[in-house]
């Protein structure tokens, strides 16, 4: 079975996996304990925090560890709901953002064009802008240069861009991401804030600058130092490999697919299939390949992202997402294309 669903989650780096096991054995002390084992663990966790700060280009004091993007997003949005700010968001965002503010009255929608790019209009004072650096479904890259305006804050989720493309935090007030989308463990992410004008949404807390409860999971935080160094050291190599895979996939299938979105990140390709009924395509292809459909037959739901991009319903139903990772090979794409073309000929 060939894995083409790296935008959902990635296979954990082997060395990271090894460090997790060693951390369970050697660094089990409580981060907050003022004793030998606590201090020993604290040094390792702070090393990881420093490594993340170096990649992001920020102060390590402005980063807290969370269980992932979902928690980070909830902390930020809940704070601004309590402050009665207008929340500006797009229907192309992750369901975590949409579900959090669905019942909130003071919200406004950012429209997107047919290529998936945001269209910003008349941003007023006392507003929180919630957007993603890269759309996880289409791979469309977004950037927003926030003008200096009183009480306007920018929150950006970096889950699909971390370790892949650069993001300038000078323009961003808050950011989040989960490491499982960048060859790290599940259950850990970060929240970045430029200024600590936010409070815990869990009541009184001692951990992570008083913003979250519980004891830090040493075993999955400690390996992040190595992971960040690995991503930084191999950035050009990984970027080149993913670029080649993206180019090769498009070349092999250019006459039988139509790509959704422009200005994409290279590891994500969302496209609709010409002529072939999607049910037949999935039946044949999913025996050998893992990928994501933009339409759920079981739930009867179509992609909200592609719908916002004004793609016709019949084409949304025929759209799929292929996403590459560092372990994918040209030979795997060759196998996908061979079977794809074989199926296509039946409906030509």
Key traits:
Aspartate Aminotransferase, domain 2; alpha/beta; 11 helices; seven-stranded mixed sheet; Aspartate Aminotransferase, domain 1; 348 residues; four-stranded antiparallel sheet
Structure write-up:
The chain has 348 residues and is of the alpha/beta class. The chain folds into 2 domains: 2-8 and 234-346, Alpha-Beta Complex (Aspartate Aminotransferase, domain 1); 14-233, Aspartate Aminotransferase, domain 2 (3-Layer(aba) Sandwich), CATH 3.40.640.10. The protein contains 11 helices and 17 strands. It has helices at residues 14-26, 36-56, 69-82, 95-101, 218-221, 224-233, 235-253, 278-285, 304-308, 313-316, 330-346; strands at 2-3, 63-66, 86-89, 107-109, 111-112, 118-119, 127-132, 152-157, 174-178, 189-193, 257-259, 268-273, 289-290, 292-293, 295-296, 301-302, 319-323. Strands 2-10-9-8-7-3-4 form a 7-stranded mixed β-sheet, with helices on both faces. It starts with a strand and ends with a helix. The mean pLDDT is 92.
Total number of beta strands: 17
Strand order of the largest sheet: 2-10-9-8-7-3-4
Helix content: 25-40%
CATH topology of the largest domain: Aspartate Aminotransferase, domain 2
């Amino acid at each position: 079975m060939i894995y083409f669903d790296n935008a959902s989650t990635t296979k954990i780096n082997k060395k990271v996996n090894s460090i997790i096991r060693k951390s369970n054995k050697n660094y089990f002390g409580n981060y907050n304990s003022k004793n030998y084992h606590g201090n020993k663990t604290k040094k390792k966790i702070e090393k990881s925090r420093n490594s993340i700060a170096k990649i992001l280009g920020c102060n390590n004091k402005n980063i807290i560890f969370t269980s992932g993007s979902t928690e980070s997003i909830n902390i930020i949005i809940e704070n601004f709901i309590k402050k009665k700010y207008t929340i500006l968001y797009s229907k192309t965002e992750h369901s975590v953002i949409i579900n959090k503010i669905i019942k909130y009255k003071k919200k406004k929608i950012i429209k997107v064009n047919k290529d998936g790019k945001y269209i910003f209009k008349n941003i007023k004072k006392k507003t929180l802008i919630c957007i993603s650096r890269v759309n996880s479904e289409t791979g469309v890259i977004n950037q927003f240069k926030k003008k200096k305006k009183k009480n306007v804050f920018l929150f950006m989720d970096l889950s699909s861009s971390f370790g892949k493309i650069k993001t300038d935090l000078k323009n961003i007030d808050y950011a989040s991401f989960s490491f499982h989308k960048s060859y790290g463990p599940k259950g850990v992410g970060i929240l970045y804030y430029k200024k600590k004008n936010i409070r815990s949404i869990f009541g009184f807390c001692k951990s992570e600058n008083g913003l979250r409860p519980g004891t830090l999971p040493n075993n999955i935080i400690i390996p992040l130092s190595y992971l960040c160094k690995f991503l930084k050291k191999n950035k050009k190599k990984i970027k080149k490999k993913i670029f080649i895979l993206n180019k090769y996939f498009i070349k092999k299938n250019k006459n039988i697919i139509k790509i959704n979105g422009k200005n994409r990140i290279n590891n994500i390709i969302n496209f609709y299939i010409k002529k072939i009924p999607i049910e037949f395509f999935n039946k044949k292809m999913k025996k050998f390949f893992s990928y994501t459909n933009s339409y759920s037959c079981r739930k009867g739901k179509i992609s909200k992202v592609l719908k916002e991009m004004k793609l016709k319903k019949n084409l949304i139903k025929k759209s799929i997402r292929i996403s590459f990772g560092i372990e994918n090979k040209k030979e795997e794409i060759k196998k996908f294309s061979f079977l794809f073309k074989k199926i296509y000929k039946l409906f030509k």
